[in-house]
Amino acid sequence: MSSALVYALTGAALFVLGMAGLILQPHLLRKILAFNIMGSGIFLMLVGVAQRAGTPDPVPQAMVLTGIVVAIAATALALALARQLLDMNGEMRLPEEKTGKDRLDV
Description:
CATH topology: Helix Hairpins
Strand content: under 5%
Order of helices and strands: HHEEHH
Structural class: mainly alpha
Largest sheet: 2 strands, antiparallel
CATH class: Mainly Alpha
Number of strands: 2
Distance between the termini: 59 Å
CATH architecture: Orthogonal Bundle
Mean pLDDT: 87
Number of helices: 4
Helix content: over 70%
């Protein structure tokens, strides 16, 4: 098994793990962490795909580095918004969506 395949399979496993955490966890901080795990899985898959005949392709590697910087900025923004939600509501959970008749009561 080549190293590119190991990177790609590990990335796919991290993506699935992050997706499960994003769907199953109600706590907002855990959702942010799950989203970061999904991003790390995508970065690993891109690094695995970037191998061409044993030599790394620099374009996908540059995309991964740019993606890491964007992911850090997005995480900082998400944490700042989560902190504001904590200050407003006193809990780190998203408000439940109102459906049907409940929407008319507003």
